[in-house]
Amino acid sequence: MTKTRFGAVLALASAAALGTASAHAQAAYTATQALHISAFGGATGIYTGVDTAKNLAITAGVNFTFGHLLGLEPSLTVRGTYPVDKGADVGEKTVLGGLQVERKFGRFHPYADALVGRGELNFSPPHPDPTGSFYYEVTSSYVISPGAGVDVDLSPHFALKFDGQFQRFKTPVVASGDVWAKSGTAGITYRFDFNNRRRHWR
Fold this sequence. Notes:
Blueprint: H1 3-27, E1 35-47, E2 54-66, E3 73-83, E4 90-102, E5 108-128, E6 135-153, E7 158-170, E8 178-192
Antiparallel strand pairs: 1-2, 1-8, 2-3, 3-4, 4-5, 5-6, 6-7, 7-8
């Protein structure tokens, strides 16, 4: 997953978010906004699960929230993570998507999510397999990523974000064949408002 490809995936996701929201706003401009769009970004600390390797990364993504169900707000979410710590022994890249469910308590918006996608582990220097027969610079696999977090409102549009994920990677550099990475993100959420009569602030 090259830097160019990673950027292209996030750009397409953002363009889809804006295009969908614009079409919806033109088709149904009422006091109730059925679809909410938000974007988020932040700094991510990752414990990769390979030996004791850690790295620093950036995470960005978009959420498409639709309707209400039993007091919950379900949404589709897409996010990507890219390493920025050039001195790390293991760098983690992911592009993930899935379902998120949120519950509002005043200014606090706790949520849980279940994500899947593709990821890479980049090794510097190359990492041996358990037998020492092969050395790997990069391994890629499908990734499963359950997690949870909370958004804390600062204004009608901005919120602080705190997010944690557990991510399973398949990789031949460990005897079990997979590792569980742990990541924590602190950042900012921005909520788009395509209906000025609707207010998120409570």
